[in-house]
What we know:
- The complex is a heterodimer of chains A (307) and B (259).
- Chain A has 307 residues and is α/β, with parallel strands linked by helices.
- Chain A has helices at residues 43-50, 68-77, 94-104, 109-122, 138-149, 168-183, 195-201, 219-226, 241-248, 269-278, 293-301; strands spanning 5-14, 17-27, 32-36, 58-63, 79-82, 156-160, 187-192, 204-209, 212-217, 230-235, 254-257, 261-266, 285-290.
- Chain A has 2 domains: 5-218, P-loop containing nucleotide triphosphate hydrolases (Rossmann fold); 228-290, Alpha-Beta Plaits (2-Layer Sandwich).
- With 259 residues, chain B is mainly α.
- Helices cover 79% and strands 0% of the residues of chain B.
- Chain B is built from 10 helices and no strands.
- The longest helix of chain B has 45 residues, at 3-47.
- The two termini of chain B are 20 Å apart.
- Classes of the chains: A alpha/beta (307), B mainly alpha (259).
- Chains A and B meet through helix 2 and helix 3 of A and helix 1 and helix 4 of B.
Amino acid sequence: MHPLVEAADLTKRFGDFTAVDAIAFSVPSGEVFGFLGPNGAGKSSTMRMIGAVSPVTSGRLRVFGLDPAKDGRRIRSRLGVVPQDDSLDMELSVEENLYIYGRYYDLPRREIRVRIEELIDFAQLGDHRTSRVDPLSGGMKRRLTIARGLINRPDLLLLDEPTTGLDPQARHVLWDRLYRLKQDGVTQIITTHYMDEAEQLCDRLVIMDRGRIVAEGSPRGLIETHATREVLEVRFPIGELEPAGPGLHETADRVELLADRALLYTSDADSALGKVHRLGLRPESALVRRSTLEDVFLKLTGRTLVD
Amino acid sequence: MQVPGALRVVEANAIAYRRVWKGSAFSSFVTPALFLVAMGLGLGSLVDRGTGPPGFEDFSYLAFLAPGLLVASAMQSGAAEGSFPVITGMKWIRSYHGVVASPVGTRGLVGGHFIWTGIRVLMVSVIFGGVAAALGAISPMSALALAPIGILIGMATVAPMTAFTANRENTEALTAVFRFGITPMYLFSGTFFPVTQLPDWLRSVATVTPLWHAVELARRVALGSGSALPAWQHVGYLVLVFVVGVALTYRFFTRRLNV
C-alpha cells in the first residue's frame, strides 16, 4: 500500500530564508506521525504544504498519491485540519460552527446533522451544542476544533500544536480523544514542541531543527539510540556548577552542563550519584528520571526545547 | 472562480448574518431612510423655494436626492463589507485560513465574499428603493431599475476596499479610508447637489470617483435627466473598477493565505 504522504527533497523558502530544507519522510496509513522541534524549526510550514495550502518551493510531495500543485482541491477534501489558533466563529454556536464546515466539504445537510450528533458526543460538548463558542473554555474550543476537522471523516488529520496553551487536565482529555481516533484507524500528523506529547501520541516521529530533520524513529527507539536509560539531574548552588564540571564528566557516559544543573546520562543513576559523592561534590538536589525525547533533542542539537 | 465553493461561503455568511441582522438593518436601511426624510423633505422644503439646480428645475429636491442617496447607501454597504469583515476573517478570528484549508480554497473564498456582498447590496438597494417609493420620491418602477445600479456601485466599492483591507494589520488605515475617502465621496460626488456647484479642481476629482458615475446613472434612470456622458461609459467605468479590485483581491489573498 502506498504511503498517505511521501516527501523527498521537500523545500520551502521565503525569500532568502529557508524554512524547510530538503527533508524526506513518509507516513503510512493508520500511523500517528509527529514533527517535533522548537518554534521556527519548519514544522508548520511542512504541515501547510501537506495541507495543499502553501505551494512547495522545490522537491517532491505527494499526498494520497496526488500532487498538491495540481490536485489541491481533491487533497483538501480528504484532509481534516486542526489549526493551532482555533479560528472558530465566536459569534456562532457549537453546532453552527460544525455545520458551516460540513458545507465547506460539500456534505448534504441531512448528513451533516447526523455527523454533528456524533461529533458533539465525541468532543464531549453535549451541554453546549447551542451555546455561543466565545464563552467556552480553551479545552472545549480545542475539542470543537478537532471535531470540526473530523466533519468530512478525513483520511488524514493534520494537528498543528494541538495542546499548546491548554492546562494539564485539558491536555490529558485531548490526548485521550486523539488516542481514540488512532484506535479508530485515523491517520494523524501532529506537530508539537512538547516532548511528552510526542511520546504519548506518536508511533513514529522526526525531530526537526532549523528546517532539517535531525533524527527519525519511534519515541522509544530514539531514546534508546540517542540517550541512556536513566538520567541523573544534579543541581548545585550558584557558582559551584562550573568548577564541578570536569569532575562530573568522569561519573557518567555523557554529561550535559546546563545553566543551573547538570544532566548525567547513565544506565545506572544510583552508582553515578555515588561517584558524584565520592568526588566530594555536594549537589543541592539530585533527581533520577527516565530519559525523554527532550534528552534526545539536547544531544542532537546541543540546545534545549524552550516553551 | 469555483462556483459551488463560493456558494458555501455565501451560506456561511448568511448564517453569521442571522445573528447580527438587527444592527446591520439599522445602519443599512434605517439610517438612509432617516436621511431621506430629513434632507429630502425637511431641508428640501427650503431648497424647493429656489430655482433648483440647472437641469433639474422641474424636480423637487426629494426627487433629486433619492436616486443619489440610494446609490450612496449601496456604496457605504459595499465599503463596510470590504473592511471589517475582511480583517476579521484574515486576522482576528482567522476564519479565512480555515476556508482556504478546505476544498473551497482561495478562489471560492474570494468568489463567495463578492457574491455575498452583491446580495447585501441588493437588499439595501431594494429596501431603500421601497422606502423612497413609499415617500413618493421615485416611482416604483424607478425603484426597481435603480437596484442594479446599487449593485454596480456596491461591487465597484467592495472590490478595491477588500484588496486594500487584505494587506492591513489593524483598523487604523480602514478608519482613515472611511474618514478621508468614503465620507467625502458620500458628500461631494453629486449625491446632495450636482458637482457643477463645486470649484473646478474639486469637480474633476469628484468625476473620477465611482460614486459620481453611479449617481449620474441613477439620476438618469430615475429622472431621465442629467449625465453628460453616455450610460455605457458610466457602467464601463464601474465594471472596470470592480474587475481590477477583484484581481487585486485575489492576488493579495493568495499572497497572505497561501504562504
